[in-house]
TrEMBL record:
GO molecular function: 4 iron, 4 sulfur cluster binding; metal ion binding; tRNA (N(6)-L-threonylcarbamoyladenosine(37)-C(2))-methylthiotransferase activity
SMART domains, per the entry: Elp3 (SM00729)
Domain called Radical SAM core: residue spans: 137-371
Transmembrane feature ranges: none
Stored InterPro entries: Elp3/MiaA/NifB-like_rSAM, Methylthiotransferase, Methylthiotransferase_CS, Methylthiotransferase_N, Methylthiotransferase_N_sf, MiaB-like_bact, rSAM, rSAM_horseshoe
Cofactor needs: [4Fe-4S] cluster
Protein name (record): Uncharacterized protein
Domain MTTase N-terminal: 3-115
Amino acid sequence: MKRKVSFITFGCKMNQAESQAMAEKLSPHFDIVFEEKMGESDIYVLNTCAVTSEAERKVRQTIRRLKKLNENSKIIATGCYSISDPEELNKLGADVVLGNFEKKQIDRFLYEEGIYSDKHFWLHNEKYDILVPNEPYDNRTRVFLPIEEGCINSCTFCKIRFLRGLKIVSLPKEEVIKSIEKFIEKGYKEIVLTGTNLGYYGVDNSETLEELLNQIGKRFADKEIRIRITSLYPEIITDNLSAILNAYPIFERHVHLSIQHFSDKILETMNRKYNRKMIYTAIENLRKYDSKFSITCDLIVGFPGEDEKDLGIMFDSIEELKLLKVHSFRYSPREGTVAAKMKNQIPGNEKKARLSQMNKIADLSRENYLNGIIGSKVKVLTENRLKDVFFGYDEYYIPHNVQFHEKKIEKGQFFNTMISSLSKENKGVVSNVL
């Protein structure tokens, strides 16, 4: 009987892709499960996140719970938190601590004990591979394809660049194309391109993201697939990039923008490479070709020095731009960052109140966007079924409850639908199969 290994993944899509790739390395010799937290597995692999203090708290909580449920289970901690503070995870009960480099050879460390987390792996290794999975994470309908790793920005609030590496490593164009071909052959319909900072794709090998996307568009234009991009920075959304994303039907008419704030003062303090005008220009570029092009984004409230004027600018921008969704965060001081030492830190209760305000405005922005697309004909990729309703996403990354009766619908298929109304609590829409 094979021993059971459980993967528990925290944080980004990159982590999900890497968890799947690690699981594939171990699957010939172990039974693999995902998100199993009842203490029944022999080995737990925690792929951790350190983007916020809350993310780290969840990792600590999980280690304590697993140790309490089954003290004989082996815990392997890997990922960003494992580089940020490997000693703490080891003291909490992680038997083995691996960093973002060591996770790539997880099969070598299964029977080890102690800390093997190299905090400066990008300096010690001239070249290292991106961990690319062969299947979707946890048998889901979409597959994550990591194409870039590392970030060379110097944002004052972020320490992920140190944890993912201050060196850019890109998956060559021909390998990206081969991976997409492989996924299509296996029948997968949605492929999500992910990375630490996709804007830096190709910096290491004289390629560019625009060239890659244009080649993908030409190569797979006649395929019934959907290509989604996880996150881009506003300054790289040129008119040419926007034209490429809108020119080929395989690209999702949606982009997630890593915005963080709309106030020029706060953006400058964050050391971002763009201002409010550039954010608006990026979104105008995308919607010039398709007025329904949807935008989701990350926004932070409570950054040091943020005042009522800054909040007003952010709230007004959210409302004006009709954003599909805002991933909202309270500013979380990260040890070792410039922002953690700044004056005018905002008290926790005030940050909580500001977050509540922003979420209300974001909900209104979402409602305004969704109301504007009622009656539109879209193509939904179905995911889950509940009686006579299917759940899925369309090309604008809008969640659908698809009503169907006589027409046969299967999981993982595209269907043309018409949006009829907003769903409960304005989380998505209700549509009918055409």
